[in-house]
Amino acid sequence: MTQLTRRGALAFGAAALATPALAQPRFPDRPIRLVIPWPAGTSSDAQLRSLAELAGKALGQPVVAENRTGAGGTLGPMTVAQQARPDGYSLTQMHLSVLRRPWMMRTPQWDPVRDFTHIIGLTGWLFGTAIKADSPLQSWADMIAYAKRNPGKLTYSTSGIGTSNHLAMETLQEQAGIELTHVPFRGANEGVTAVLAGQVDMVCDSSAWAPFVESGQMRALSVWTAERASRFPNVPTLKELGHDMEVTSPYGISGPKGMDAGVVRVLHDALKAALFDAENARVRGQFDMPLVYYNTEDYRRFVVERVEYEKAMVRRLNLSLDG
């Protein structure tokens, strides 16, 4: 029988310990795809592209942003959940419509808790209502009064049926006792274009309208944050206008279900560093996007709790995508 010397045994043991490490490639060892479910040029697109660039530097591999729009901002996340491998190389923005939309379907196509690995909470949006500058409606009170006199005549745009801004407007109509006509688009930019062209009366969406308010082409009637936006100190909040509402629709980053905890940790740390980087803070400031950071554990908890809230809202407002 061959005898194994003490020195040989030590060498064999060291080699055995080293083998698994050599067999496991460093993550990431190739580019990562980040699916953005909104058109290019939107506030979330700008924030996520900045985040991707900064995170790529920390990870040593590029994070490539890919716009995949459709289905009220849920096509991209649904594609990642159903088609991507859970290896950390396919990520997506996780926003509230992804948590809400399944419960608006007769047969839900995904489960927002079980079908994703939730990684980090990031930020939210500055929502508001804006009209064309030459509109005869000078204020929120003018809009409400006109809508009461003319049920269904005023039109408003959002970035899709079942989005946070659409639900907020449904709630506002209930509270104010008015009836407006909803005109959904694929993103806030399209709604702004429609208002400027006189095709829609109001845009009720994230802050794609902000530069046009600053340039004098549009007028903001309300912002939906808890406090007045620093860029628009003269524009009242919904609470100031008598509506006990605050709508910022916080979002984060998620991947397919079943991701390795170590990979999630690497991604969280790189994305957190990018989120708190001065450059990403500058981009968020450009669009008045509030910081809503959640670590992985807290973000998972937020998603679970928010899904229950969204289910209740869908039932209360009797929202359905099935006609």
UniProtKB/TrEMBL annotation:
Gene3D superfamilies xref list: Bordetella uptake gene, domain 1 (3.40.190.150), Periplasmic binding protein-like II (3.40.190.10)
Pfam families named among the record's database cross-references: TctC
Organism annotation: Siccirubricoccus soli
Protein name: Tripartite tricarboxylate transporter substrate binding protein
UniProt keyword Signal present: yes
Signal peptide: 1-23
Family: Belongs to the UPF0065 (bug) family.
Taxonomic lineage from the root: Bacteria, Pseudomonadati, Pseudomonadota, Alphaproteobacteria, Acetobacterales
Record keywords, A-Z: Signal
Highest taxon above the source species: Bacteria
